[in-house]
Amino acid sequence: MDRIEGVLKEERVFYPSEAFRKQAHIGSEEEYERLYRESLEDPEGFWGRVASELHWFTPWQKVLEGDLPHPKWFVGGKTNLAFNALDRHVQTWRRNKAALIWEGEPGEERVLTYHDLWREVQRFANVLKRLGVKKGDRVTIYLPMVPEAAIAMLACTRIGAVHSVVFGGFSAGALADRIKDAEAKVLITADGGYRRGGIVPLKQNADEALKDATSVEHVVVVRRTGEEVPWTPGRDHWWHELMEAASDRCEAEPMEAEEPLFILYTSGSTGKPKGVLHTLGGYMTYVYLTTKLVFDLKDEDVYWCTADVGWITGHSYVVYGPLLNGATTVMYEGAPNWPEPDRFWRIVDKYGVSILYTAPTAIRAFMKWGEGWPLKHRLDTLRLLGTVGEPINPEAWLWYYNVIGKGRCPIVDTWWQTETGGIMITTLPGAHAMKPGHAGKPFFGVKPEILDSEHRPVENPDEGGHLCITRPWPSMLRTVWGDPERFLKQYFSQHPGVYFTGDGARRDKDGYYLILGRVDDVLNVAGHRLGTMEIESALVSHPAVAEAAVVGRPDPLKGEAIVAFVTLKEGYQPSDALREELKAHVAKVIGPIARPDEVRFTDALPKTRSGKIMRRLLRQIAAGEKEIKGDTSTLEDRSVVERLKEGA
Ligand code: WTA
User: Where on this chain does ATP bind (predicted)?
Assistant: First the structure.
C-alpha cells in the first residue's frame, strides 16, 4: 500500500489523566474489554439493553435477524427519532436546557431550549403535512448551517418523511442530480448563507436545479440574508409565513425500526454519487450510544462538532447523537477564519465548550495560522477533543493535544464513514491509551478484519490490507437508494460475505488500527469525499476537453490535492487562461470543494493495452516522483510517461 508514507513515525503513547478516568462512562480498559466481548458474544442482549434506554411505542420481537449483507435490527419494534431526541427530554428537567446554541457567521446568536426546539419541530412537521408530505416521501434540504436545518431534519423524522440533506456548497447541477435520484417532493432552502463574509446564492442554485429536477412541488425558503431572490408564486413559500400559520402540536409517527430514515449522497468509485440509505431503529440506537461513550458525554457538557449538516458527521454528531442524549449542541454557520483565524477559539470561550470535534484539515490550517491565535483565549473549559474524516498526522495530533488541549484533554481519533452511520474505530477516552496517528480499537459490536487480496485475514502486526467489517452492526447502510445491485457490488463483492470499507489499514500488536486511506478511486480532500470519476466527467463536459484523468497528490494541508491530467480536442491550445477556466468549470458543475488544484495538459494519457487509464502512474507523476515504480509493461505507449514527466 503506497499511502503509508504520509504517516510519520511517532512511538509515544499518551494516557488519559486519573481524574478523567474516574469520571468517565467507561473508565478502564478491562471494562471496555468485558463489554466488547459481550457485544460480540451476545449482540442481541447488548443492543437490546442499549435500545431500551430509548422510547419504543411497540417493543421489538427480535433484536437482530439475518446477517450481512441484509441484517434487520429491532424487528417488529416501533419508535420515532424526533420523539426520542425531543419529547423524551421535554418530559424531564431538561425541558428548559439549551438544546441548540447557534452562532451565525456575522455574529448573531440563538439559543433553543429542548422545549423551544420541540415546538418548532412540531410546527414545521405540520407545515410539511400541509404541503402534502406523507410518510415515506422524500424531502431535500439544501440549507446553510442554521437552526432551521436541524428543525427540518427532525420534522421529517417526526412524520416519517425521508430527508436527503445536500451540502450547501454543492452546485445547482449536483443538487439537481440528488433531487432527481430521490424524487423529492419538497425542497427546503434559504435566500442565502454566509461564508467568509460573502453570500452563497442558495435560492438561485435551487431555481437552476429545479429546471431539471421536476419532482419538486413546493419550495420552502428560509429568510437568512434578506437578499432579493427570484420567486415562483404557488411553488415558493417563506418558511416564517408557513410557520406562523402552523400549530405547534404534531404527534410523532410511530415508525417501524427498519423503515427508511434518511438518504445521504456520497461519492464512490463511479461517476454517479450513491444515495446511502439509513433506517430508523439501528441508526438511532448506535448513534445514541457512540455519542455518549466516545465523547464521554454528560449533562453538564457543551458539545461542539464543527461539521456541516450536509455530511454524515453533521447528521450523526451535530444533530441526532447529541439530542438523543439530551446534550447541548453548538452549531456555527461560517468559516473558521472569519473575521480572523481565532473564530473557533472565541466560540469555545464564549459558550464554554467542553467537547470539541473537528477535522484534521482544520487543525492543520490552525497550525499554519500560528499558535498565537489560540493562545489569545483561555480554552480552559475544554475537556475532550475529537477528530474525524481523514487520517491525522502525528504532528497535527500533538499540536491539537498541546496547544488546544493543553496536554489535559484526551483525543479521540474516530474512524467511520457515511455508510457506517456512526463511529466504528476509536479509543474510548477514559479507557484507552492514545497513539497519535492510530484511530484505536473497534467500538462495541464492531468486528473489523484486515484482508489481503486473496480474502485471507492479515495476521502479522503492522501489515497492511483491506479494512473490512465482518459482522452486522446496527447503523450500517441498508442499501443504495434505488440501486440494490450497486449496494451489493460496491460493498459486498470485493471480499465475499463481508463489508468492504474501501480503506486500507493495518493493526499493531496491541490491536490498534491505523487507517491508511482509500484504496479505491475516491479522494479525500480536506476531509471531503470526492470520486475521481465525478471530477473527470465534469471536465469532459467542457467543450475543450477530450479526455481527463484525475488523481490525488499528497498535500500537507488538505491531506490530498486534486490533480487533473487533460487532453484537449482539436483546435484548442493549452493556456493558463484555459487552465483557470477548467478549474472554474469543475467548481461550477460539482461545487467549489471539487475545484482541481492543478490542471496539467498532455497530448496523451498513459493507458494499458485494454484502454484503462493507469492512475497509479499518474499518482506518481503528480507527486513529482522522478522514478516511476511498479510494473509498466502493460502500458500501450511508454513514451507517454516521459512526456508527462517533462510537462510538469
Ligand atoms: C476517511 C466521514 C482516517 C476514510 C465520517 C473513510 C478517516 C472516509 C477517518 C469516509 C479517520 C474518516 N482516520 N481516515 N479517523 N475518518 N476517514 O463518508 O477514508 O465522508 O473511508 O465519512 O473518510 O468519509 P465520509
Answer: 389-391, 413-418, 503, 518, 529
Is ligand 1 within 6 A of the CB of residue 313? Answer: yes
State pLDDT tens for residues 361-413: 999 999 999 999 999 999 999 999 999 999 999 999 999 999 999 999 999 99
Domains and CATH numbers, the chain: 4-442+458-506 (3.40.50.12780), 526-647 (3.30.300.30)
pLDDT of residue 343: 98
Tell whether ligand 1 has an atom less than 6 A from the beta carbon of residue 258: no
Which atom of ligand 1 is nearest the CA belonging to 418? 18
Ligand 1 atom closest to the Cα of residue 517 is 19
ipTM of the predicted structure? 1.00
Cα(533) to ligand 1 centroid in Å equals: 19
- Residue 405 annotated in ligand binding: no
Half-sphere exposure of 173 (CA within 13 A, CB side): 15
Q: pLDDT by residue (tens digit) across 584-629?
A: 999 999 999 999 999 999 998 888 777 788 888 899 999 988 877 7
329 in Cβ contact with 100 (< 8 Å): yes
pTM, 2 dp:
0.94
Distance (Å, whole) CA 510 – CA 534? 39
- Three-state DSSP at 98 gives strand
Q: Scan for cell 444515495, then name that residue.
A: 275
The low-confidence residues of the chain, meaning pLDDT below 50, are 1-7
**Paired strand residues for 444:** none
The answer to whether 181 is a known ligand-binding residue is no
| Ligand 1 contacts CB of residue 524 (under 6 A) | yes
187 forms beta bridges with 140, 219
Q: Measured from the CB, is residue 531 less than 6 Å from ligand 1? A: no
- Quick check: CB of 529 below 6 Å from ligand 1? yes
Q: Distance between CA 167 and CA 164 in Å, rounded?
A: 10
